[in-house]
Write a structure and sequence with these properties.
It is built from 5 helices and 7 strands. It is of the alpha+beta class and 178 residues long.
Length: 178
Amino acid sequence: MLLKRLENPNEEIWKEAFALCESAFPKEERRDLDELLRVMKNSDYHFCVLLEREELCGIVLYWEIGELIYLEHLATMPEKRCSGLGSAALELLKQEGKMIILEIEPPADELTKRRLGFYQRNGFEVAEYRHIQAKYHEGDPDVELVILSYPEVIEKEAYDGFYSYLQRYVGYGGEDKI
């Protein structure tokens, strides 16, 4: 299992990875192509593919913010789901030795409850902070999400710094930090 950072959107595997992102996440939870190309210029942003024997198995899109990794998107190919690849991808990120933070929908139905359980089984803990997702498109409504972090609950001061970064760089039309 290999996590490979892609920086050239002209690579064929990049196009496959972007197609997975489009199919795995609803429009309000992902960037359009132009906005994705903008954030890829930010040195903190990592557009990575999960490869097994050079075959695309998934995507891991994250921001490296000092001693924190913000896991923005994790998805596996539909035919590879429930095979342990998501947990394997998380293990690769854990090897960086940094706190990992991510967002999920509030657990309200079977799917969202399973998603919460998946992350908790992988050592993530819920932080009880009110959190609004960075907007991916101009005019998006506020979307309240649940924050999880690994290996422990993120401290409030660190969360506040993360949230400030999120608003400044991650959201639609944010500043480029090259």
